[in-house]
Design brief:
With about 270 residues, this protein is of the alpha/beta class. The protein has nine helices and seven strands. The protein has a seven-stranded mixed beta sheet with strand order 3-2-1-4-5-7-6, with helices on both faces. Helix 3 (about 65-75) runs parallel beside helix 4 (about 90-100), helix 6 packs across helix 9 and helix 7 runs antiparallel to helix 8 (about 215-225). It is globular, with a radius of gyration of 17 Å.
């Protein structure tokens, strides 16, 4: 299931979105993470906040809710639990986590995009124990060991430093708690061939029809530049997480990585 990580963006195959225009970051990556400044990425997500949820459904061929439910189930959370959702977007994952921990639990969703956070707050204003805050994933507005689990979905590849992103999530979670990452991958299996074709060729077209062509071209390019699943597992270990595992879904078009926060060293 592992593919070699490209050192740079590959030459564009047929159907690959063109190079970035002024409306979005390039999608390229450095050895540490996304090459774009966080301010550019945040501004892009502000622009697409109004179409983000329907585009998620279309870009995933309506698989995204199933992927989200699976990742939430793997947190190990129960009633009264405390959860952190990083790069929370419009708050749907945070809301699913809140459903799991119940009214006695606490869930915080953090996102760099004020536009996304505004949508999340409006959608879930009636939820006691579910809060949203604008914040940087590389300097989370959280106390150490404050949560039982931390999650990130389709957000790690947007960070300029993957290791620091995982380290901040690990810092925020108590020893024994879980850090989970759901992200799009580049599988070569036959079963994923249709989803890859859809993602590479159709999603940018739909994005253009929605008036957000540059942003959804960025989406495809950022996935192409993201490290292979085995390398992400290594980065999680480098960030201090233990017992790191990962699994693919829908033929490997997405992966879920899980790591455990170890006890502090004596």
């Amino acid at each position: 299931m592992t593919e070699p990580r490209p050192d740079a963006l590959p030459s564009a195959p047929s159907g690959t979105p063109p190079a970035a225009t002024s409306g979005a970051p390039s999608g390229a990556a450095t050895e540490r993470g996304n090459a774009a400044p966080s301010s550019e990425v945040g501004a892009m997500f502000d622009d697409i906040a109004r179409v983000y949820d329907p585009m998620n459904l279309l870009s995933s061929v309506f698989q995204e809710p199933r992927w989200r439910r699976r990742r939430v189930a793997m947190t190990g959370l129960g009633p009264g639990g405390r959860a952190l959702d990083v790069a929370t977007g419009t708050g749907k994952v945070a809301a699913d986590l809140h459903d799991r921990v119940g009214p006695t639990g606490q869930v915080l969703g953090v996102d760099l995009s004020a536009g996304m956070i505004d949508v999340a707050r409006r959608q879930f204003a009636d939820r006691t124990g579910l809060g949203f805050q604008v914040g940087d994933a590389l300097a989370l507005p959280t106390e150490s060991a404050a949560f039982d689990a931390a999650t990130i979905a389709f957000g790690m590849r947007n960070l300029p430093d993957y290791r620091l992103g995982f380290a901040e999530m690990a810092r925020s979670v108590r020893p024994g708690g879980r850090v989970l990452c759901l992200e799009i991958a580049r599988p070569r299996s036959r079963s994923a061939r249709f989803l890859r074709w859809w993602f590479d060729r159709i999603v940018p077209l739909i994005g253009r029809l929605a008036g957000q062509g540059s942003a959804y071209g960025y989406l495809v390019r950022s996935v192409q530049a993201y490290p292979a699943p085995d390398r992400i597992a290594e980065i999680m270990r480098e960030a201090g997480l233990a017992d790191v595992t990962w699994q693919g879904m829908s033929g490997g078009i997405v992966t879920i990585h899980v790591g455990i926060v170890p006890p502090p060293e004596p």
